[in-house]
């Protein structure tokens, strides 16, 4: 009997039992039904026969491989034999790396560009560069994007890159031969062994412990298309993306959720923000300052809040975590009138007009695609399901805000809108 560690893998929301061998290889037990009892065995030592016909934990046989049904062998064509031999040779030359999450395989299928990660082109200390870190070893996307940012110097144009969709070349004037200045590449996400179901479930449990199940709303937000969060944040690139400081995956901060909902309530129900803070329910939900100056058509006007003092909101919003491995998709902004927007002037000192003769300057940014998020919010002081304005509760208002207004950047052109599933009071 051989010894190993019994583990549970997560692939596209599905749990699969497996054994981690002593050499860190993985034996998958596809036929084993993963129940709660089986999941409780995650991380325990186990004994198994070769090819894992039997698996024993704590003296109990938890798995016995089903008998194999032999099928008649088919004669392969010479072309298939040649292809198989070529693939075998290629596989033998690649490093032996175990991939436990199949989202990497999905990404390989949909991607044509190589990974942007290149340790020799990252601005890291020399002793770190000497470690010869493989791209698959960097399983924290925030670390990969921000700490191992790829730096290129192309014709004195020094900048950091995470995406270059087209190879940049120049032709030698003497030899007339093309010379590659910058190859094409795209940053690939890698989340390692991150269990997104476990993280979101733990967040829901902690929220329920803080606020109680009866006053906690639990949603799933599914964007209609792509989502952009933190586009204007600090970054070595021209654009940014909000990533969790520990896990490294994209998420929606609680402040963004509260801000979108607050703004939508003001524009949909109140005349302006000044009128909003005079409303008791508004102050109870979102909080309010003691007074506020608002710019109106006839000038500025000061408004006092309902309580005439600064109040903290009674509803708690939580960060929204993805419920599965987020897909990162590069996108592009293509401003056509850079000279006009930049207030540049011609030789005579006149402003340069916005014309089609100006060259567009593409700006790349990262989006999240095909990824649902868990939304949690609730209150200790208020009954979260009670109607507020227009006989709608807070969940109804948030659902309308996300569907009509959206969340994140560039919502005016279709990003960030989506559907909020029916709330569950169970948390």
Summarize the structure.
By secondary structure, this protein is of the alpha+beta class. The chain is 23% helix and 26% strand.
Q: Which whole number gives the mean pLDDT?
A: 85
Please identify the oligomeric state.
Answer: single chain
Give a quick account of the main beta sheet: strands, pairing sense, barrel closure.
Answer: 6 strands, antiparallel
Distance between the ends = 44 Å
Structural class by secondary-structure content: alpha+beta
Q: Write down the Rg.
A: 28 Å
> How many beta-strand segments?
24
Number of helices: 11
Instruction: Estimate percent helicity.
Output: 10-25%
Shape: flat
What proportion of the residues form beta strands (DSSP E)? 25-35%
Low-confidence stretches: 89-110, 423-427
Can you list the strand order of the major beta sheet?
3-2-1-4-5-6
Descriptive report:
This protein has 427 residues and is α+β, with helices and mostly antiparallel strands. The chain contains 11 helices and 24 strands. The chain has helices at 36-39, 78-93, 103-110, 126-129, 141-147, 196-211, 254-269, 273-277, 280-286, 338-341, 394-404; strands at residues 2-11, 14-20, 26-29, 45-48, 54-57, 60-64, 150-154, 157-161, 163-164, 168-171, 178-182, 185-186, 216-223, 226-227, 287-288, 291-296, 299-304, 311-312, 315-317, 321-322, 327-333, 363-369, 373-379, 418-420. A hairpin with a 5-residue loop joins β4 and β5 (54-57). α7 packs across α11 (394-404). Residues 89-110 and 423-427 have low confidence and may be disordered.
Please tag this protein with its features.
single chain, 427 residues, alpha+beta, six-stranded antiparallel sheet, disordered C terminus
């Amino acid at each position: 009997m051989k010894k190993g560690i019994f583990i549970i893998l997560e692939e596209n929301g599905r749990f699969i039992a497996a054994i981690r061998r002593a050499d860190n290889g993985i034996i998958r037990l596809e036929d084993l039904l993963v129940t709660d009892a089986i999941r409780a065995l995650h991380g325990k030592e186990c004994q198994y026969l070769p090819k894992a016909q039997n698996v024993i934990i704590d003296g109990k046989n938890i798995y016995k491989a089903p008998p194999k049904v032999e099928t008649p062998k088919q004669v392969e064509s010479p072309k298939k034999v040649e292809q198989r031999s070529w693939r075998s040779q290629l596989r033998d030359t690649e490093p032996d790396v175990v991939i436990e999450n199949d989202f990497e395989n999905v990404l390989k299928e949909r991607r044509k560009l190589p990974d942007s990660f290149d340790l020799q082109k990252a601005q890291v200390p020399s002793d770190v560069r000497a470690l010869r870190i493989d791209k698959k070893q960097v399983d924290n996307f925030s670390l990969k994007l921000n700490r191992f940012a790829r730096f290129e110097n192309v014709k004195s144009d020094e900048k950091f890159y995470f995406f270059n969709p087209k190879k940049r070349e120049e032709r030698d004037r003497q030899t007339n031969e093309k010379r590659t200045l910058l190859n094409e590449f795209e940053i690939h996400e890698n989340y390692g062994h991150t269990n997104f179901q476990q993280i979101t479930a733990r967040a829901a449990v902690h929220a329920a412990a803080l606020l109680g199940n009866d006053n906690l709303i639990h949603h799933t937000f599914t964007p209609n298309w792509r989502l952009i969060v933190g586009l204007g944040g600090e970054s070595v690139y021209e654009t940014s993306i909000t990533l969790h400081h520990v896990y490294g995956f994209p998420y929606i901060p609680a402040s963004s959720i509260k801000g979108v909902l607050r703004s939508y309530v003001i524009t949909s129900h109140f005349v302006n923000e000044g009128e909003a803070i005079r409303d008791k329910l508004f102050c109870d939900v979102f909080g309010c300052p003691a007074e506020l100056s608002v710019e109106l058509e006839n000038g500025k006007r000061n408004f006092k809040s309902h309580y005439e003092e600064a109040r903290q909101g009674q509803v708690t919003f939580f960060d929204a975590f993805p419920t599965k491995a987020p897909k990162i998709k590069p996108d592009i902004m293509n401003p056509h009138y850079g000279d006009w927007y930049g207030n540049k002037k011609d030789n005579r000192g006149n402003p340069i007009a916005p014309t089609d003769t100006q060259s567009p300057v593409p700006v790349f940014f990262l989006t999240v695609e095909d990824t649902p998020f868990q939304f949690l919010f609730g209150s200790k002081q208020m009954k979260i399901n009670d109607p507020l304005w227009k006989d709608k509760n807070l969940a109804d208002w948030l659902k309308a805000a996300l569907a009509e207004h959206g969340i994140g950047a560039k919502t005016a052109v279709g990003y960030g809108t989506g559907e909020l599933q029916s709330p569950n009071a169970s948390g």
